[in-house]
Each structure stands twice: as structure tokens, then as C-alpha cells.
Design brief:
five-stranded antiparallel beta sheet; 77 residues; alpha+beta; single chain; 5 strands
Length: 77
């Protein structure tokens, strides 16, 4: 489960052996949210709004990087 980015102690991870749709995990203190790469909508979970805004701002410019990592770690999907 490589960490792709850390933004102000917010970890953005992409895991191997995952399930569709392609998504990434956001870990912030005791919170976790899975975000769909294509739409940047919440798949499951929750992180505070201020931290989510930072993540979404970064992810809008990094969709290709996130998708490449998801595909590399989950080649069967």
C-alpha cells in the first residue's frame, strides 16, 4: 500500500488487491475516506471538509498518476 502523497499529514494511498471502481484511500487522524479517481466522489467513509478540500484540489491535477498507480497495483481489474 504505497503512499502516493502526504498533504499536511493527510496520507493518500493506493492499495494492491483492490476492487472496482478505481479509487484511492485518504487517511487523516482517525478518519478514512475512499475516493473514486474518475469522479472524485466519496465511495465510502469520511474525512473532515477542510482536509477533503485539500485532497480534492491536489487530486484534480493528479488523476492520471492515481489511475496509473491503481492499474499497476491491480493489473487484473
Amino acid at each position: 500500500m504505497p503512499t502516493i502523497k502526504i498533504i499536511d499529514s493527510i496520507k493518500i494511498d493506493v492499495y494492491a488487491r483492490e476492487h472496482p471502481p478505481p479509487h484511492f484511500h485518504v487517511l487523516c487522524a482517525e478518519y478514512e475516506e475512499l475516493i473514486v479517481i474518475e469522479t472524485l466522489e466519496t465511495y465510502i467513509g469520511y474525512i473532515p471538509v477542510a482536509q477533503r478540500k485539500k485532497v480534492i484540489k491536489w487530486a484534480k491535477t493528479q488523476k492520471e498518476l492515481l489511475l496509473e498507480n491503481f492499474k499497476r497495483l491491480n493489473p487484473r481489474l
